Amino acid sequence: MVAVVGTRHVALSKRLGADRVVNYEAEDFTAIREKFDVVFDAVGKTSFFHCRPLLKADGIFAATDLGPGWSNILLSAWFGLTGSKRVQIPFPKDAPGFVRHLAKLMTTGQFQGVFDRRYPLDDIVEAFQYVEKGQKTGIVVLNVT
Ligand SMILES: NC(=O)c1ccc[n+]([C@@H]2O[C@H](COP(=O)([O-])OP(=O)(O)OC[C@H]3O[C@@H](n4cnc5c(N)ncnc54)[C@H](OP(=O)(O)O)[C@@H]3O)[C@@H](O)[C@H]2O)c1
Fold first, then answer.
1. CATH of the domain at 53
2. Ligand 1 proximity of 45 Cβ (cutoff 6 Å)
3. pTM of the predicted model over 0.85
4. 47 within a domain of the structure (yes/no)
5. How many domains does the chain have?
6. Residues 122 and 64 in one domain
7. What are the tens digits of pLDDT across the range 65-115?
8. Does residue 23's CB lie within 6 angstroms of at least one atom of ligand 1?
9. pLDDT for 20-32, tens place per residue?
10. Residue 66's CB: how many other CB atoms inside 10 A?
11. CA 15 / ligand 1 centre spacing (Å)
């Protein structure tokens, strides 16, 4: 697995188990001379067309974001019509089941969550302001007690 991150997250990505880390501030990740089964844009910073050279013939581009000009939505619908899964915005079909699965992976140490800051509910405005900076590392938690 290859992780693409900025300088400040190189060590974290290695610690989390990436086989190789590409620092996007130092090199162009699309210039890697390798083909992948899946390219996953977890932060909404790239596009299918930008990443296409990295995909195997049956490789999948998945994203958490709508994409520039809603392109991820449009492309996933287009490829879906042809029976292809080339572009996907994955949603769990069974959300409670997925959360239980994630909890199990975290309990057994197979998945490590990355938690940034925690805020009490009363400080929700401050929490949103921090998240909106686009600088958070992993998850920001609101404590609802
Ligand atoms: N969070 C959610 O619950 C959620 C749910 C659905 C969809 N989304 C979508 O997911 C996307 C990410 O949202 P988010 O709230 O999780 O994160 P975010 O706060 O927007 O992402 C910040 C992270 O992105 C990294 N980053 C910035 N530019 C990058 C680049 N060119 N390549 C690789 N990493 C880069 C930053 O690290 P560096 O500073 O080191 O670059 C930082 O750790 C958004 O487009 C959002 O619409 C999020």
1. 3.40.50.720
2. yes
3. yes
4. yes
5. 2
6. no
7. 999 999 999 999 999 999 999 999 988 899 999 999 999 999 999 988 899
8. no
9. 999 999 999 999 9
10. 13
11. 19
- Residue 9, ligand 1, Cβ within 6 A: yes
Three-state secondary structure string covering 49-100? HHHHHHEEEEEEEEECCCCHHHHHHHHHHHHHHCCCCCEECCCCCCHHHHHH
Instruction: In whole angstroms, give the CA distance from residue 143 to residue 120.
Output: 5
Residue 65 shares a structural domain with residue 127: no
Contact 73, 66 (CB under 8 A): yes
Nearest Cα residue to 135 out of 14, 40, 12, 43: 43
Question: How many angstroms is it from 82 CA to the middle of ligand 1?
Answer: 30
Minimum CA distance residue for ligand 1 atom 14? 43
Q: Ligand 1 centroid to 100 CA: how many Å?
A: 24
Measured from the Cα of 9, ligand 1's closest atom is: 40
Judge whether 99 lies within some domain: no
Distance of CA 116 from the midpoint of ligand 1 (Å) = 13
Residue 109 placed within a domain:
no
- Looking at the domain assignment, is residue 133 inside a domain? yes
Model confidence at 131: pLDDT above 90: yes
Query: Could you tell me the residue range of the domain that residue 138 belongs to?
Result: 114-145
Determine the average pLDDT of the residues in 11-19: 95
Using pLDDT thresholds of 50, 70 and 90, give the confidence band for residue 39: very high
